[in-house]
């Protein structure tokens, strides 16, 4: 089964999020949904008992205490989350999140029973400098710091070329295949076999072509996941792949 993960980022309101989740449920969809923090509980209530899976967009490396603005893994579990995104490029580049912090988040998520979707990807200057594989390999190295039980909590690894996120550009199928093959080899050396997702300006028009590539076992969808019609079309392509 191909995975379609919908990262709603800082979009939607309670009414629109609940409406979108309700339509997905009514259609028997099984997407992974990542709403903003305030939308987690209402969406959880709508999708309870369905094939849809709830995830959060981030998690604190701390458990509880005086950490204003942070959200703990326990709180996410309490809200109904099963998954959490860690290492998304908008966290890496917009908030300066680096290897030591990401390892702490990965371990914290595993400790409280959350499954992780771990994101990696290079910037345009890094790709133009011929460093794409090196950069992605270094980012993937955070997983090597996990114990076997913590590695078992990684639900998927998502490759998202930073230069393709929200730009309308996307990696060619050949580029996606090349990087996913590298990821598969690296993960196997770590004793990990997890689904590989592609993210970066995924649209209904390119979803099928991307999913036809070896090692592309799902999609991490941003802007195209905010409207039912486009997300349903992408999910249909995943079902047919």
Structure write-up:
It is a single chain. This protein has 241 residues and is an alpha/beta fold. The protein is 43% helix and 15% strand. An eight-stranded parallel beta barrel has the order 1-2-3-4-5-6-7-8, surrounded by six helices. α3 (73-79) links the parallel β3 and β4 (83-86). The longest helix has 17 residues, at 173-189.
CA gyration radius, whole angstroms: 17 Å
| Helix share, percent | 40-55%
Return residue spans where pLDDT drops below 50 for at least 5 consecutive residues: none
On the 0 to 100 scale, the average pLDDT is: 95
Task: Tell me which CATH architecture applies here.
Answer: Alpha-Beta Barrel
N-to-C order of helices and strands = EHEHEHEHHEHHHEHEHEH
Spell out the CATH superfamily.
Aldolase class I
Summing up helix and strand content along with how strands pair, one would put the structural category as alpha/beta
Total domains: 1
* Number of H/I helices: 11
Distance N terminus to C terminus? 9 Å
Shape category: globular
Please give the number of β-strands. 8
- Please report which band the strand proportion falls in: under 5%, 5-15%, 15-25%, 25-35%, 35-45% or over 45%: 5-15%
Sheet with most strands: strand arrangement: 1-2-3-4-5-6-7-8
CATH C-level category: Alpha Beta
**Main β-sheet: number of strands, strand sense, barrel status?**
8 strands, parallel, barrel
